[in-house]
Amino acid sequence: xxxxxxxxxxxxxxxxxxxxxRNKKFDLLDIEHIAEEIEDVGKSEQRELxxxxxxxxxxxxxxxxxxxxxxxxxxxxxxxxRKSLAFHIKQVPSLKTKLANPEWQDAVWADAVILAxxxxxxxxxPETCPWTFENILAHDWLPGSESA
Length: 148
Known about the structure:
Helix content: 55-70%
Oligomer: single chain
Order of helices and strands: HHHHHH
Low-confidence stretches: none
């Protein structure tokens, strides 16, 4: 039995659980809550991937649909998000499977469209993503660059 309550002070609880593990006091561990926390780490990594991808796609939408407002700032954001996504996927390789998941792609697209609508006021973006996720993540690709 642990001395710190998970429900009342999760930080103190986590420190205590770490101490118990390091000191091999396995019989005192709060196994159920530890399992929940471990699962939450994975969910957090997935949320970060989705959030960064939505920001990237929103900027790609702005790039395509507001060509007259393109600037260094947008290009920098696109590059930074791609770099961060590449690093994140390198650090957590199991996230690659999300990139190929059509349901995940649809959810990220929906989030990106909401962001783009809020930032542009444009409301008639495509219902589905017109680009491949390979293009979205490619360092040298921008929407409309084929015809430029």
